[in-house]
């Protein structure tokens, strides 16, 4: 690889890395806002080995959920279940340098997550991914999101035409439905495959608040049920 190609690859991975950090920050993980805007020079110091070569393994990291994120993923207590389980936990982001990704790679990654007591993982890869591997990821006993690098080169939520999406906590969802005397199935819907749903890691059955700009009202909110 020429020096120019190395510089382009470093710049490309810098954009990918920033988007991942911004995504986890927006989801509600414990990250400093400064981490989401790392400079290219600081990224070079982090990502390159002593010889100056980019090493993707140096980019992998762990993130913990904030109390606010944990709250949004904890059901309301009931008499039958006074201490409900929190359905979120530590996440590991793995930057793969493999030239191809198959079922075996994701199973090894799932084992890595289990052995370290991690709740979920993000597998970032520049390689082609087989359809069977993607199906396998969906059926593993631990949550794994597979992210192609090209999907992270631009943070779609930073575009001015993409409105703000906010995940409602369980009690906020309940209050919304009671206020408008609705069932969740009567709400407009957003698919789990929607790019913003994927960015925020939304789960089926959750409700997201969408805040849009309005020339007359300033801002207005709508709600979507995740399916």
TrEMBL record:
Molecular-function GO terms, alphabetical? DNA binding; DNA-directed RNA polymerase activity
Q: Name one GO biological process term.
A: transcription by RNA polymerase II
Q: What positions does the domain RNA polymerase Rpb5 N-terminal occupy?
A: 8-111
Task: Indicate the segments forming the RNA polymerase subunit H/Rpb5 C-terminal domain, all copies.
Answer: 154-226
Q: Which UniProt keywords are given for this protein, alphabetically ordered? A: Nucleus, Transcription
Q: What is the predominant subcellular site recorded for this chain?
A: nucleus
InterPro entries given in the database record: Arch_Rpo5/euc_Rpb5, RNA_pol_Rpb5_N, RNA_pol_Rpb5_N_sf, RNA_pol_subH/Rpb5_C, RNA_pol_subH/Rpb5_CS, RPB5-like_sf
Gene Ontology annotations for the cellular component aspect, listed alphabetically: RNA polymerase I complex; RNA polymerase II, core complex; RNA polymerase III complex
Where in the cell is the protein located? Nucleus
Is Transcription regulation a UniProt keyword of this protein?
no
- Family membership: Belongs to the archaeal Rpo5/eukaryotic RPB5 RNA polymerase subunit family.
Identification of the protein by name: DNA-directed RNA polymerases I, II, and III subunit RPABC1
